[in-house]
Amino acid sequence: MPAGKALFAHLRLLIVAVYMDGTPPWHKGGPFGGLWSCAPHPSLPAMGGKRQLTFYLDDGLRQSAEAGQHNFLALIAEVAREAGFTIAYRPDSEAERAASATRDGYAIFHMAEPTHDRALTIRRAYHYPFWAIERTARRWDWEVARTAFDPGTVPQPEARRFYRFWRKRLFGALPDQARRNGFVYVPLQGRLLEHRSFQSCAPLDMLRAVLAHEPRPVIAALHPKEVYSEAERRALDHLVRDHPRLEIRLGGMETLLQGCDYVVTENSSAAFNGYVFGKPAVLFARSDFPHIALDAGRMGAAPALAAAPAHSPDYAAYLHWFWQRMSINAGRPEAREKIAARLQAAGWPV
Question: Residues with Cβ < 8 Å from 195, sequence gap 6 or more?
Answer without folding.
Answer: 201, 202, 205
